[in-house]
Specification:
single chain, 700 residues, alpha+beta, Catalase HpII,  Chain A, domain 1, Hemocyanin, N-terminal domain, Rossmann fold, 3 domains, 7-stranded mixed beta sheet, globular, binds CIS-heme D hydroxychlorin gamma-spirolactone, Catalase_clade2, heme
Length: 700
Amino acid sequence: MTDRREDAKHRQLDEVRVDPANTELTTQQGVRVGHDDDSLSAGARGPTLLEDFHTREKITHFDHERIPERVVHARGAGAYGYFEAYDDSLSRYTTAEFLTSGERIPVFVRFSTVAGSRGSADTVRDVRGFATKFYTRQGNYDLVGNNMPVFFIQDGIKFPDFVHAVKPEPHNEIPQAQSAHDTLWDFVGQQPETMHMMLWLMSDRAIPRSYRMMQGFGVHTFRLVNGEGKGTFVKFHWKPVAGSHSLVWDEAQKIAGKDPDFNRRDLWDSIEAGRYPEWELGVQLVDESAEHDFGYDLLDATKIIPEEDVPVLPVGRLVLDRNPENFFAETEQIAFHTANVVPGIDFTNDPLLQARNFSYLDTQLIRLGGPNFSQLPVNRPIARVATNQRDGYGQQDIHQGHTSYFRNTLGGGCPALADSGAFHNYTEAVSGKKIRERSESFQDHYSQATLFWNSMSDVEREHIVAAFRFELGKVEAHPVRETVVGHLNQVDHDLAVRVAAGVGVTEPPAGPPNHGRRSAALSQLNQPNLTPHGRKVAILAADGVDAVGVQRLVSALDAAEVDVEVLAPADGTLRPGSDGEPVKVDKQLNTMASVLYDAVVVPCGPDSARTLEQDGYAVHFVAEAYKHAKPVAAFGSGRDVLRRAGVQEQLAEGTETEFSQGVVTTGASAGDLPEEFGASLLAALADHRAWERRTDSVPA
Ligand code: HDD
C-alpha cells in the first residue's frame, strides 16, 4: 500500500490543513469568542446592535459561501491518487517525464456529469467527465477527458449552442439533468455531426455502474513531442481494471431517487474500504506522415481511430487511493484547463480543442473569482512557480523585491529564462486563407455512427433503440422526431425503423447501404478478464435465518473482495435458525433497494423465508434485481422467496448447485452449503448481468 501522506502534493497540502481538534472558537481575526448563540442586542428583547462584529462577520461570510457552479460538469466527485508509467518506452516520442520516468506522480481526478446542476442525481443519462490533474515535476498537466471517445460537435463555436440546447429549457428550467426534451433533439436534428456521439449517449455508456467501471478518453488527437522536436499524434485512453459496466435504464432512473449520490458514494466508499479504483493508461500513436491515411480527419473530435486500426499501447497505471478532506476546498475548487500542458505534450489544430484552450481559463476567472486561482492549494503545482504576474483578488504569495518585469537588471535578472526543460511550442507550418469554413474532411457525419451501431451486441442495440424511443418519446414537437429518425436512417435503416415504430414516425424508405464495418473494442460485452472485485451483494434475511450458511457465504465473498450487506425488515441482530451466532443486520431493508446492489441472495431458514415471502418490499427487491438481469441466488428455503418473486428459471431441487442465466440456487444449507454455490455467484457477478435472461413480462 502507498504511504499516502508521502508524496510531494500531500506534503504541500499538509501546510494548509486545518484541524479543529483542541481549538477554541475565534473570529476571523483570531479574537476568542465566548458566546455564539445570541446576537448582541439592546436589552434581552431589544434590537440587534450594529457593533456586533461577530454576528455580522459570521452572517457576511455565510452570505458569500457559494461560488458559481461550473457552467457544465457542475456535479462531480473527485479523489487523489497516483500515476506511474510502466517503463520509458514513450521516451522516443515525448519529453514528458511523467509518461516515462516510472516515478509515482500525484494526481487528482474529478468525475462528473455534464448537464445537471451541482445537486442533481448521479445516474442520469449523460456523458461523464474524467478529468485528471497530474502534479508533475515539470508543472501541472491536465487531461480533461470524458467517458466517451468522441464529442457532439466539431468546432468550439457550437459549444454554447449545444449546452443551451441540452440544459433545462430557459422558460421554465425543466427538465433537470435530462437530455430527453425538445431543445436538445432540435439541435441534434439541425447538427448531424452530433450523430456519432448521440449513438454513444443513447448506449449504456451513458449510465455507468460506477466511475470505477468506466473508460476514459482524451477525445482529441493531441501531439507528443520528443527532444528533437519531432511530433507524433496521440490519443489517450483510460481502461478500468474493474471492467467497463453499466446500469440498465429503469435501474438508473430509480437510483436517481433512491440514492442520488450513487456514483459519488461508490467512489468514496471504495477508497475508504481500501479497494482502490484503478485504470490503465493507453496511447494510440500515429506518425505525422500518416495524418491523411484514415479516410476521416484526425482533427475531427467526432471520430475515433478504431483500436483494430491503431492498437492501444499500455503505458502506465492510475490508482485513486485517497478521498479529499473537504469537498469545497478540493473537489469544487479544482480548476482544470486543457492548455495546462508540460514539455513533450502539445496541441493539434482540432477546432474544438482550440476553443477549449480559451474557455477553461476564462471560466475559472468567474467561477473562482480572479486570476490567482492557481494558488488555491488543490491547484498549486508541486513544480516551483516563479512569474512576474502580481496582485489580483486573493493573492496568497508575498512577492519580494521591487522588480516584476522581464527583462530586469535590478532584480538580478530573475526570474531568469530556463536553461533547460523549458516548454517549446511545437513548430508547425501553417498556411491558408483567413476563413470561416468547415473543412471538407469534416463532412462525413454518419459512417462512424454506423460503425458503432454495427459493433454492438443484440442486447446493446436493444438498449440503444429503447433509449432513442424514450428520449424522442418525450419530445413534444413531432417534426423534430421525424428529422432525427431521418438522420438515424443515414446511420442504419434497421435502427431508424425500430426507433420510428416506437415514436409514431412513419417508417422511412431504405437509406444508404450500411458499410458493414465493425470494431469489436466498442462493445462493452467484449471485455477480457472480468472480475467480481468491488461489487456489492445484498443478503435478505429475517429472524430464523441460517446463520452458518450466511457466514460461509460471506467469507467466500469477502475473500473475493466483494462487499456484502445483510438487509432485514428491522435493524439490530437476527436470531439464528439453529446453530451459529446471531447475525448482525447492516441495513434496514426499507432504507435500501435492489438497484443499489449488484446481486441479491436469499439464505435458508424456514422462518426467515416465510417472513420475507410476506414482505412485499423483500419480494419486490428480488423481482427487481431479477428484472434488471442481476445475479439472484438462494439456498435452502430461500428458494421460496425467489419463486414468490416470479423467478422463472428452474431452481435446484437437490443439494447440487444450479446456475442458469445468472440464477444460482441449491437445496443445501448451513455447513453443507457447497463451495460451488459461492463460486457460481462470483462468476455471475463477474459477468455483471445475465443479458440472455428475458424479463420483459416481469413487473418491478
Ligand atoms: Fe469541457 C468543463 C470535458 C468540450 C468548456 N469539460 C469540463 C469538464 C470536463 C470536460 C471533464 C469538467 C472538469 C472538472 O471536473 O472541473 N469538454 C470536455 C471534453 C470536451 C469538452 C472531453 C470535448 C472533447 N468544453 C468543451 C468545449 C468547451 C468546453 C468545446 C468550450 C468551448 N468545459 C468547458 C468549460 C468547463 C468545462 C466551460 C466548465 C467548468 C470548467 O470548464 O472548469 O470551460
